[in-house]
Amino acid sequence: MKIVHRQILKEHIGLFLLIGSCLLGLILVGRMLQLREMLLSQNLGVFDVLRLFVYLSPFFMMLLTPIACMLSVFLTFLRMAADRELTALKASGVSLYQLLPAPIVFCTLCTLFSLYISLFGVAWGMEQFKISLMEFARTKTKLSLQAGVFNQEFPGLTIYAQQVDLDSGDIRFVFVQDKTSKNFTTTVVAPEGTVTTDTEKEQIKVVFRNGRIFRRVDENLDVLHFGTYAVRLPLGNMLTSMGFSRMSLKEMSFKRLVEVDGDEALQKQLLTENRIDPNKLRAVKTEIQKRLALPLACLVLGLFSVPIACVFRALKQQHGLLLALGVFLVYYSMLTVAESLGETQPEVASVGVWIPDVLFSCVGFLFLRQAVRERVPSGVLWVLERLQQKGVA
To answer: What is the pLDDT of residue 184?
Structure first.
């Protein structure tokens, strides 16, 4: 049995690394493509991009670890069932209960890994990501304007240029609307200009030449002619357009969440300084419970997938993969619904995030008993018959 457990555990780990790396790579590439349209970055090297990948990884691994763990266990036992290895082991007197130590150990390791990321890794990664982003913005980037497009990378500021030369920074036929001031709106129109980055002052400077300024205060409109006019844009404002302007619960460490939840003075301070959204502040309790419930999903869903793979052993592997993804989608949907209640009913939501774990644990135990007894629930049997008719199983 030690050899059997070792081989099962080895297959779990191999599939986990493969599935986890593939899913993480796809998500990170998609995220970077999304950021590239919003950011200033045009001159980042390969190592700079990899560095940002590393810092973003913990945030996504907190979600990907449970699904990678579940798929690893499910695909392992589905293959063993399809290859009749489970049948051979049962004929030798080995029950399904005796095969559980390997997936239990594997799921426990995944749970501990996910818990560490949830408590410490997410906050560290997002903090380093912001620091690196600001560093790259100060030293390596230019404002990425698209010709013929109204660019709104900076909050309250709209820039339009008919012609843009990213290499030299020259722009022609420029229109800029500045709504950063609450008292008035400023519009700048100029035939030409230049975009430069001031690394010392951490600013992007847009210099306009031979244009006009239209400034509207209430019902009054002032028109000014100028030879040279400069607009300075703080680099830190680019984080605002990416959703980093305020403190996000998902970016806080677990320790910080507990401090905010238990300190009303700190909550008032954050609200006064406008560092956190009032609605998000009510969801602190829910976020704390989610940080604990989501890692436990590795153990719950991993063990849940063992009897599911045995019951649906007739499925082809690709269809079994879709089944497992569907199960995880149901789990995550329930978790999301409970989390969404956090902004309105935090006490209910903090308990609701544990419902998926409890529900899947109970259902998994019932399916395990049926699988050990070589029994298939009538509803599942009906589904399998329909799948066989369609050639899926």
So the answer is: 74
Residue 311 CB neighbour total at 10 angstroms: 21
Question: Which SS3 state, helix, strand or coil, does residue 173 take?
Answer: strand
Give, in order, the Cα–Cα distances in Å from 282 to each of 7, 256, 261, 327.
47, 15, 9, 30
Cα–Cα–Cα angle for 52, 53, 58, rounded to 5 degrees: 105
pLDDT at 170: 82
Q: What CA–CA distance (Å, rounded) separates 360 from 258? A: 28
Q: Which residues of 272-287 are buried (b: 16+ CB within 10 A; e: fewer)?
A: eeeebbeebbbbbbbb
Taking each continuous run of H as one helix and of E as one strand, the counts in the chain are 14, 5
pLDDT digits (tens, 9 = 90+) for 18-65: 999 999 988 888 777 666 654 544 566 677 778 888 888 898 898 899
In angstroms, the CA 361 to CA 301 distance is 8
Burial (Cβ within 10 Å: 0-12, 13-18, ≥19) of residue 383: middle
- Do 293 and 354 touch, CB atoms closer than 8 A? yes
Write phi, then psi, for 178 (nearest 5 degrees).
-110, 115
What's the CA gap between 37 and 320, in Å, rounded? 37
Q: Is 373 exposed, middle or buried (0-12, 13-18, 19+ CB in 10 A)?
A: exposed
Report yes or no: 122 and 62 within 8 Å, Cβ to Cβ.
yes
Confidence of residue 245 (pLDDT cuts 50, 70, 90): very low
**Nearest-angstrom CA–CA distance, 82 and 207:** 69
Token pair in block for residue 255: 């320790």
Task: Please tell me the number of Cα atoms within 13 Å of 390 on its side-chain side.
Answer: 9
Identify whether the C-beta of residue 253 lies closer than 8 Å to the C-beta of residue 123: yes
For Cα atoms 304, 306, 308, give the angle at the middle one, nearest 5 degrees: 75
The end-to-end CA distance of the chain, in Å, is 30
Residues sharing a CB contact under 8 Å with residue 301, sequence separation 6 or more, in sequence order: 66, 67, 69, 70, 327, 328, 331, 360
Residue 177 has pLDDT above 70, yes or no: yes
CA distance linking residue 313 with residue 376, whole number of Å: 11
